[in-house]
Design brief:
- The chain is α+β, with helices and mostly antiparallel strands.
- The protein has a domain of 97 residues: Double Stranded RNA Binding Domain (2-Layer Sandwich).
- Helices cover 34% and strands 16% of the residues.
- The strands form 2 sheets. A 3-stranded antiparallel sheet has the order 3-4-5, covered by helices on one side. A two-stranded antiparallel ribbon has the order 1-2.
- A hairpin with a 5-residue loop joins strand 1 and strand 2.
- The longest helix has 21 residues.
């Protein structure tokens, strides 16, 4: 059982783990051990996630989310399989916790009268500076 929050827990049956050979340093032993972990969690078909959390998780533009709605996390930071398993699970929990709180709705605002006037005054000033740089071609 993986605890995300007080109200959300993920049973082990919803998590799929696959063990791979990790790349990188490690000597001859690295070619024989499968210490890297690929953790898969089906966001679309998970009964453990509330609907608003599921929608926010699927709306994220995350490269780890497949077209089928499966979140794939690869952990190969450590040399031990157990530590990589724990790392993948912690990262899954952090991703889900990141979408628990809905984002604040943006309140549209209008620019103030003073800011509009300052902007136009600045444009006018800039135009005058550019005008003084130009050469008067009509006199020649």
């Amino acid at each position: 059982m993986l605890t995300v929050s007080r109200s959300i827990t993920l049973p082990e049956s919803e998590l799929t783990e696959r063990f791979l050979r990790a790349d990188g340093p490690g000597g001859q032993h690295v070619n024989r051990t499968e210490s890297a972990v690929e953790l898969r969690f089906d966001v679309v078909h998970s009964p453990s996630l509330p609907e608003p959390v599921r929608e926010r998780l699927l709306a994220r533009r995350d490269r780890r989310l497949t077209d089928d709605g499966v979140l794939v996390i690869q952990a190969r930071r450590f040399r031990e399989q157990a530590r990589n398993r724990e790392d993948a699970r912690e990262r899954l929990v952090e991703i889900i916790r990141g979408v628990l709180v809905p984002p604040k709705a943006r309140v549209a605002t209008k620019p103030t009268r003073g800011s509009k006037e300052r902007r136009l005054a600045g444009k006018e000033q800039r135009g005058k500076i550019k005008q003084t740089r130009s050469r008067d071609w009509s006199r020649e």
